[in-house]
Amino acid sequence: AQSVTQLDSQVPVFEEAPVELRCNYSSSVSVYLFWYVQYPNQGLQLLLKYLSGSTLVKGINGFEAEFNKSQTSFHLRKPSVHISDTAEYFCAVSDVYAGGTSYGKLTFGQGTILTVHP
Amino acid sequence: KAGVTQTPRYLIKTRGQQVTLSCSPISGHRSVSWYQQTPGQGLQFLFEYFSETQRNKGNFPGRFSGRQFSNSRSEMNVSTLELGDSALYLCASSPGLRGAPDTQYFGPGTRLTVL
Predict the structure, then answer these.
(1) Is the pLDDT of residue B97 over 80?
(2) Do residues B102 and B28 lie in contact, with contact meaning Cβ atoms separated by under 8 Å?
(3) Distances from the Cα of B101 to the Cα of A80, A99, B17, B96, angstroms
(4) CA of B55: which chain A residue's CA is closest?
(5) Out of B43, B76, B78, B108, which could bridge B66 as a Cys pair, Cβ 3.0 to 4.6 Å?
(6) Which residues of chain A have pLDDT under 50?
(7) Contact assessment for residue A48 and residue A32, using Cβ atoms and an 8 Å cutoff
(8) Bridge partners of B87?
(9) Contact assignment for A109 to B35 by CB distance below 8 Å
């Protein structure tokens, strides 16, 4: 992928409210798309992924995302957030080459810090 | 299955020294990728190893190197450390199956501080 843009660096939201974290990418080849979450002092945990097929993908903890090829977007949504969702969220893209291989490289956005207030 | 493990978790070095970080992938995974995470540059790809061969490389100077062993465990080495090398270094593993999409699973990272 040439680049990944997460449009919001910080998103504050109240508990039980819906949330959308936005992600756009640019690439000259086909891509696989991912959302990861990072809690303080931890590694990245996979939330969900789009590899092919249905453009609406569901992940862990009630998150879902929709792949929009024409708009080159992969926005993450959750209908009702909890305090425990407070974390940093990363959108990532891997280019797909001949044979479906990605050669192990993910290109990440700059991250969105989601803060859920009581 | 056990997850990706990285050792050590924390490391403090001084400028000019060298450092070696270790990563043990999930059992059965043959691909190991390394990333550097800093507040300013975010998450950046360093390199990827598959079956003991470097298959892909990011845009980092030659001071950053790595290797992979026959059991898929990987090490990365940074020589002549600079203050700017202070970062969280993340390792990720994936099956690396030919022709199949790969999903990377990350370890907890090694926090390197260069003084």
Answers:
(1) no
(2) no
(3) 31, 9, 38, 8
(4) A103
(5) B76
(6) none
(7) no
(8) B112
(9) no
